[in-house]
# Entry
Amino acid sequence: MLLRGVTTTLSRSCLRSPVSRDIRGLATALQQEPSHPDIKTAVPGPRTKELLKELNTIQQADSVQLFADYDKSIGNYFVDADGNVFLDAFTQISSVPIGYNHPHLLSAFNDEHNVKALVNRPALGVFPAIDWPERLKRVLLSVAPAGLDNVATMMCGSCSNENAYKAVFMWYRGKQRGGRVDFTPEEMSSCMVNQAPGSPQMSIMSFEGGFHGRTFGALSTTRSKPIHKLDCPAFDWPVAPFPRYKYPLDQFQRENQQEDKRCLEQVADIIEQYAKKNNPVAGMIVEPIQSEGGDHEGSPEFFQALQRLCQEKGVALIIDEVQTGCGPTGKMWCYEHFNLPTPPDFVTFSKKMLTGGFYFRSEFKPPHAYRIFNTWMGDPSKLILLERVLDVIKKENLLGLANETGQVLRSGLLNLEKEFPHLMNSVRGRGTFLSFNAPKTDVRDKIISKLKQNGVIGGACGELAIRLRPALVFQPKHAEIYLDLLRKTLKEI
Ligand code: PSZ
# Structure
């Protein structure tokens, strides 16, 4: 059977409207899920320790937490090398959209056309398959942020951001040239020795606590932890403060509005400073919820004002939805919660979208070929899987489920915050994209580690936060298990 025969196109309206969820479908997909975690050994167990030792003889592997048994992992449950079964509330740093071994994904390559798309991997910028334009429309453009009708595919989140920056710089220089599209001989020769005017001074602004990746351009905009940046040369690009709110939000409205104002004033000042030192801010990148940096939120009003500021100053606005995108906040794109009056200029994605890439306004399409380019430029087989993921999201109304499960999680976390005020505060987030703070970093780390021994994989971010990043198939019943085991863990501390 051909791919186009078995899947349906997702229309934007379908994703946004609450259609009734096909519980039966979801139940079938998850029927082999265990009913609860099952921890048989110490964590990490003996086999895990052996594997870690072996891997460490080949590479620096100390970041490895567990080795997965991907034959046995299923739905929301992760099975490790020692046979321990964990409820996964972290999902490979937020990048498993519909759980492990979803049947709709397992069957994707039963189809000969799809196998050939997998095996014959094209250099997409030069020899794409006959069905590539249609596939892009049917899959990626069917969930495009409103008003962004262009898309480029890439390999990972970092290179999606990196290439969005390049598109911004090309657009900015294009404006300075006043529409001239050819280059001067001086530009051509100076760029070959990394000098202006061919390699001009320009910058991308980012925010304290932001994370945008680890390739060189992206790394210059990453501001979450020194360990990401140490020893690597960086561009002189500006950083501005991002709001740090007090919680609960409804009790600190005045303080938090003041915080928005403080940050916005600094953004405007820094743009002026960089213009004066002849390093103009051409673009700005921001996460709708700062994720690696500690799950810091900005209000809709903050983002609306930020966009106005960008428009006034001629700065392109890039929204980094690598971690927030594809549904966990209850909307396909988190920034949709902000009611921006006009679309942002770019939305970058990866993780749950399975392919990296960026959506952009057509004004940002470079006038020349080969300028935003690399060999693979993504991988069509990832779009085959993504098409199926989007199909499941729509059929099972998983955006509605993220809201429903999110409410169970949020109210449970708020109750735990009341019960353990010395261990938990500042519950926040949207949908299942939630987090809370511990009072100190060592307490936070202890909670995460004990939670794992109790059968739940959770994630840390920033200095104090514990974040929830379950798959989109996390149901209220999984939320109850998470909350029970978190309560048990907090009692042990
Ligand atoms: O330590 C790391 O390299 C991590 S830990 C989590 C991430 C990276 N997240 C990746 C990420 C992201 O969360 C946002 C908001 N933007 C860009 C990236 C980079 O994506 P990758 O890792 O695919 O290059």
User: Anything to note?
Assistant: The longest helix spans residues 253-276. The chain has 18 helices and 16 strands. Residues 114-323+331-378 form a domain with the Aspartate Aminotransferase; domain 2 fold (CATH 3.40.640.10).
